[in-house]
Amino acid sequence: MTTSAGSGTKPDVLRGAPAGGRRRRVAPAARYIIPLVVGLAAILLADAMGRSLANQGTELLLLALLALSWNVIGGYGGLFSLGHQVFVGVGGYALIVILSHTDLPLPLVLITAALLSALTGVVLGYPMLRLRGPYFAIGTLGVALAVLAWMLNWPFTKASQSYPLPMSDSLGFTELFQLTVAIAVLALLAITALVSSPLGLRLVALRDDEFGAASLGVRRVRTLLPVWAVSGFLAGLVGALFALQQGSLTPTSAFSIQFVLDAIVVCVIGGVGTLYGPLIGAVVVFALRQYTADFGEWAMLIEALVVILVVRLAPEGLWGIFGRLIRALRRGRPAGAVPQKEGTS
Amino acid sequence: METKQHSGTRGAAAAPRTSLIHAAGVTKTFGGVKAVSGIDLDVHEGEVVGIMGPNGAGKSTFLSLLAGAQRPTSGELVVAGRSMRSADRAAMARLGVGLAHQIPKPFRRLTVRENVRVAAQTAPRARRRDLVEKALEMSGMAAKADNPAGELGLLEMKRLELARVLALDPKLVLLDEVAAGLNTRDLDELIALVALIRDEGRTLVIVEHVQEVFHQLAERIVVLEWGQKLTEGSPAEVAADPRVVEIYLGESSAADGPARRAPRPAGGPARLTATGLTAGYGQATVLHDVDLELHAGQVLAVLGANGAGKSTLAKSLAGMIPIRSGTVSLDGAPIDQLSSFQRVRKGLALVPEGRRLFADLTVRENLELGVGARSTHQSLDRIHELFPKLTELSGRAAGALSGGEQQMVAIGRALASEPKVIVFDELSLGLAPVVVDRLLEAVDEIAAWGTAVVLIEQNVHRALALADEALVLRQGRVVFRGDPAAFSDEALRLAYLGTDL
């Protein structure tokens, strides 16, 4: 393996390599186990949290989940979607409509709602994913506005009126929090698996150099479509959970452009195209909004200022800074410790 | 170990070799320009074919047609059994047509191995790991497999580019100027790697300016000029062909072209001086330690083969790219830290390669945009005297003009700022000989105004006839600087065609 490398006489040369090698071998397992443990702990502790904290936790997680969803296609795929609110809205309305008309169990309805959202993604993806750069952004925004206009006038979903969740299906704050934690953890694991899969490699390749990727046999739409659908699936889950949390939906609440704007702000602050950036970003944005809640319109100004500062000072986001710190620490530390360990093994 | 069937049966006598490329009358036009015009070419499995020709001859366009990156406008082109009328780049890559780009652009945020893995995904799942490891091994990148690709040096990036192509397990490997920007030692390493790829029996089509690559690798060379096939033959045959020498050096009889009207003595202090000028792009240093000195009214001809650093010199003088070290001064004052527009204000104007006109603006508007702080609209009168044709074209959109007319506008725009020094980058590129003569006459006249002229020109003999001083670049270094008359044809051949020719 990489650690032995046969030449223990040259610790200087080896110092960098084994650290990288070890990180690569240990991390994948930890990347799955740590979220599972944290998620399980949160679910178990949920009862002790109280309703208010649980509700806040749900809101935080929905923000994080939304950002994770956007980050898959916007960060890893480099496709700047301005239309993710369509997925949220479809997921939310699908959940409420299905629950209102059938007696299906909630988990099944959740999955169906998310699948419908993913299906929307597939249908929209065929034309949209042929667009690039700003055209894709404007195209998705246009679709989102068109869908909103449609929803405001569609009698089946009560047009612009509020569509309530059946009372019998509403969840308690704690239950909803637990459900959201479970879904967020599974989503994170799914994304972790996705980005290190062959599909994830092709996705990043397309983002870094589309022509180069094509030169290596990567077919653009074929690669982007499943990822776009996954992103739609996750945003659909956000919509469904949002519907459960709100108890009712209107087109302007479920298809609000605020969803995609939130997702982008969170990703930019946390780190676009990084695995944990959206999580960190969600925590920061959520905390910021809690603290500035009393400041009225100043709150928006402060948030905008934070975004500008991050873009200016840390373009790779907070996770980027964090990652650099960790690498610097790793590089500094092993001077004494690691070569010894290798010598003994 | 990998047991790839050698598709090419190199040296196997009498075995009928399958055709990998069949081109008949292949033409590609961009707008009204024929970049590739009626090319016939057949390449069989296991062959190594080189494509050479001057800038703008259509080499890279032809290669991109072979790769499926662009589609031919007309003609028949079949590559690896697939008609290129409908193929796209990804499909061709999956058929085993690998293209190594001139400027390697790895997926920067992936590791070296991940970069290669992307390519290997075209193979059946079971073979992927072997393909990746073998490609890393062959290209010498195995030791760096876990490094982020964005942190590689230039040679390593070129190796990675080849490793990615190899991971496609390609039948046909297309190399687009892979030797560009490498120093001599790196070049040898790269040639050794390409030879290794050849020895696996893969078919190669190599577009290259660096002649050493051909001499060591190619069996057959196709020479393109003006998008057409000029000749085809063994490296020795091609090198001996007087037409090939001519397209690189221009017509040998300079007598019928414009010449210096009178010697222009170097009077007064130097207008433009550069010392130790070093510049490049990214990790490639293209220009090393160039010194030059130019007086008012003098013409300096900058010569050298493609990729020798001529345009880089022009750009670094004009401030289009930052210099790495050295100084540039105008009338004794340093200008190397100034941005390009500040240099224009100080009196240094560039006529850029490819003209870069504002296509939708009229001729008059283009010229007026050139009028700057140092000049008035009166400067335009002088331009109309120089190119009377521009007066009648005044209201036409610049984009609708012919190439020669556009070049006149570009020159006029540069002159509108009343520069003390004017730099022409590839003045005659892509223009017909008659037009070139007209433009060179204008250069002579501009010098007669007292403007110092830096002339980067492909038509060597014509340029030398006009010049007061010649500066010859080879692989980014000055190999000759002095009186153009003292510069022999032998020295020219050396600079342009390499030692073996």
TrEMBL record, chain A:
Q: What is its main location?
A: membrane
Superkingdom per UniProt = Bacteria
> One GO molecular function term?
branched-chain amino acid transmembrane transporter activity
Intracellular or extracellular location(s)? Cell membrane
Q: Which GO terms describe its cellular component?
A: plasma membrane
Map out region (Disordered) in residue numbers: 1-20
Q: Which UniProt keywords apply?
A: Cell membrane, Membrane, Transmembrane, Transmembrane helix
Any stretches that span the bilayer, and where are they? 32-54, 60-79, 86-102, 108-129, 136-156, 176-204, 224-243, 263-288, 295-314
Topology relative to the membrane, per the entry? Multi-pass membrane protein
Q: Which Pfam families match?
A: BPD_transp_2
Among PANTHER family, the record links this protein to: ABC TRANSPORTER ATP-BINDING PROTEIN, HIGH-AFFINITY BRANCHED-CHAIN AMINO ACID TRANSPORT SYSTEM PERMEASE
Instruction: Report what the protein is called.
Output: Amino acid/amide ABC transporter membrane protein 2, HAAT family
Q: Which organism is it from?
A: Herbiconiux ginsengi
From TrEMBL, chain B:
Instruction: Enumerate the GO terms in the molecular function aspect.
Output: ATP binding; ATP hydrolysis activity; branched-chain amino acid transmembrane transporter activity
Q: Which domain of life is it from?
A: Bacteria
State the SMART domains in the record: AAA
Please list the residue ranges annotated as the ABC transporter domain. Answer: 21-251, 272-500
User: Does the record carry Nucleus as a key word?
Assistant: no
Keywords, A to Z, come to:
Amino-acid transport, ATP-binding, Nucleotide-binding, Sugar transport, Transport
Q: Which PROSITE patterns match?
A: ABC_TRANSPORTER_1, ABC_TRANSPORTER_2
One GO process term, biological-process aspect: L-amino acid transport
Q: Which family does it belong to?
A: Belongs to the ABC transporter superfamily.
Q: Which PANTHER family match?
A: HIGH-AFFINITY BRANCHED-CHAIN AMINO ACID TRANSPORT ATP-BINDING PROTEIN LIVF
**Name recorded for this polypeptide:** ABC-type sugar transport system, ATPase component
